[in-house]
């Protein structure tokens, strides 16, 4: 399950950055393209975010993570590049 979580973490981080760059780079220059890309990127990010949180909760009990480690891993999904930090710091040996 850790391998699946690692894959979801990376994909969630990439989708978050894609959504963020769509907002910052595409919206000011091309509003039509922004609106076209918003739904598929946003939906993918939403599904990956929910999957990340559910898997983190499941792994908290399976791996006996303490609350500090679980909190850091959970907050990693809210910060840009946070999931990459979680992958490097906590999931490197998978």
Can you describe what's shown?
This protein has 94 residues and is mainly α. It has one domain (1-91). The chain has four helices and no strands. Helix 1 runs antiparallel to helix 2 (31-62), helix 1 (2-29) runs antiparallel to helix 4 (82-90) and helix 2 runs antiparallel to helix 3 (67-75). The longest helix is centred in the middle third of the chain and has 32 residues, at 31-62. The chain starts with a helix and ends with a helix. 18% of the residues are buried. The model has no long low-confidence stretch (mean pLDDT 93). This is Integral membrane protein. Keywords: Cell membrane, Membrane, Transmembrane, Transmembrane helix. InterPro entries: DUF3817_TM.
Task: List the SSEs and their pairings.
Blueprint: H1 2-29, H2 31-62, H3 67-75, H4 82-90
Pfam families: DUF3817
Membrane topology: Multi-pass membrane protein
InterPro entries: DUF3817_TM
Report the portion of residues in β strands: under 5%
Shape: elongated
How would you state the average pLDDT, rounded? 93
Give the beta-strand count: 0
Count, helices: 4
Helix content: over 70%
Sheet with the most strands, sense and barrel status: none
Question: How far apart lie the N and C ends?
Answer: 10 Å
Pfam families: DUF3817
GO cellular component, one term: plasma membrane
Membrane topology: Multi-pass membrane protein
Subcellular location: Cell membrane
